[in-house]
Design a protein that fits this description.
Blueprint (H helix, E strand, L loop, with lengths): L5 E5 L3 E6 L9 H5 L5 E3 L2 H5 L8 E3 L9 H5 L5 E5 L2 E2 L8 E2 L2 E4 L9 H5 L5 E6 L9 E5 L9 H5 L5 E5 L10 E6 L9 H5 L5 E5 L14 E6 L9 H5 L5 E4 L2 E7 L12 H5 L5 E4 L2 E4 L9 H5 L5 E8 L1 E2 L4 H8 L3 E2 L3
Antiparallel strand pairs: 1-2, 2-5, 3-4, 5-6, 7-20, 8-15, 9-14, 10-13, 11-12, 16-19, 17-18, 19-21
Length: about 350
């Protein structure tokens, strides 16, 4: 079990700093800005690959002055800083990230695309589809005296409504099947089974068209929830949503720069792909490609790249309410072109 990185002191006021490794992405922002160099970034790539079981960062308890700068700067809430057991996120005088990720219930059609692509499994969908029997009306009859259990109707049925109860045929039991069942809750009365039956054993009547004015409108009911505690504001949901129901505000604005003087090792390395918390990196033609629309500019890929091929250029960060000149100076080092 990983020992949690934590520092705590009780003097005039109780202060504590706790690292939540399950939320950490190994970006190194905290170690980059720590004024006392109390935070050291661990072997991010082996940790991300599951080769090493340890925290992404190490806290030097003797050097840390518990200022809280690292916790304020972390856009992923992986560092929790408390004063007298109160999280500084709740205190008015500390900086605040202006991040947002939401899904508009009124626009959402519950397709589930966002659930499938979310790299942090932060989106939950509960969907109820209408029963076929409420909208398809008809009658179907299978004459078992005529049926030879050829199985053609079962194979062609688009709704998987027909099931043949097959036997284990042997010399003492030469009967192919015990019976055939049609589940009318699944049947769409399309008539394919009747048309393919070689023995004319199936009769089917579809009355849906005759009663179409009495059939209710199709309605899909559901509920979609985005867990902000797990969300890293990558933008996958926003990019994939066909109805523009998802919107995301990222921690940084800027660009990723590939250094042309170095050579990407691509398939033989893929370190950037392994550490990216956003699934924003692909290896194409033996070179890494980073989708800027899905990147949060955390810098984990840049830290992990052994060729120093990736540079992060942050032009703006959505961190407001910075009241200390000293903190403003340290935080400003996150803006501009990164260096490893």
């Amino acid at each position: 079990m990983i020992e949690m990185a934590m520092v705590e002191r009780n003097e005039n006021e109780k202060r504590s700093l706790k690292h939540k490794n399950e939320k950490c992405v190994g970006c190194g922002i905290c170690s980059d800005i720590c004024p006392t160099e109390s935070i050291r970034l661990g072997p991010v790539l082996p940790i991300a690959r599951g080769l090493v079981n340890m925290d992404y960062i190490n806290l030097n308890k003797d050097k840390c002055v518990l200022c809280g700068l690292c916790a304020s700067a972390c856009p992923f809430d992986a560092l929790e800083f408390k004063i007298d057991d109160k999280n500084i996120k709740e205190l008015e005088e500390y900086p605040k990230w202006e991040l947002e990720a939401k899904i508009d219930d009124e626009s959402c059609i519950y397709c589930g695309h966002c659930v499938k692509v979310c790299p942090k499994d932060a989106i939950y969908l509960q969907k109820t589809m209408p029963e076929i029997s409420e909208f398809m009306i008809g009658e179907t009859e299978i004459d078992e005296d005529k049926c030879i259990y050829c199985g053609m109707c079962q194979e062609i049925c688009p709704a998987d409504a027909i099931t043949i109860d097959d036997n284990d045929v042997n010399s003492s039991n030469q009967k192919i099947a015990n019976g055939i069942t049609l589940d009318e809750s699944k049947c769409v009365y399309c008539g394919l089974c009747r048309r393919i039956c070689p023995e004319n054993a199936i009769k089917i009547i579809c009355t849906t068209c005759m009663y179409r004015d009495e059939i209710p409108e199709l309605e899909i009911k559901g509920n979609i929830v985005l867990d902000e505690d797990l969300c890293i504001n990558c933008g996958w949901c926003q990019e994939i949503c066909p109805k523009d129901a998802a919107s995301v505000t990222k921690p940084f604005e800027g660009e990723i720069i590939m250094d042309e003087e170095t050579v990407c090792k691509g398939d033989s390395c893929h370190a950037c792909q392994d550490v990216c918390p956003c699934n924003a990196v692909s290896i194409v033609d033996n070179k890494s490609e980073i989708n800027g629309d899905l990147c949060v500019l955390c810098g984990a890929c840049s830290k992990a790249c052994p060729q120093n091929h990736i540079l992060i250029n942050r032009e703006k960060m959505n961190l407001n309410n910075i009241r200390s000149k000293s903190w403003e100076k340290h935080l400003s080092t996150l803006i501009g072109e990164s260096s490893k």
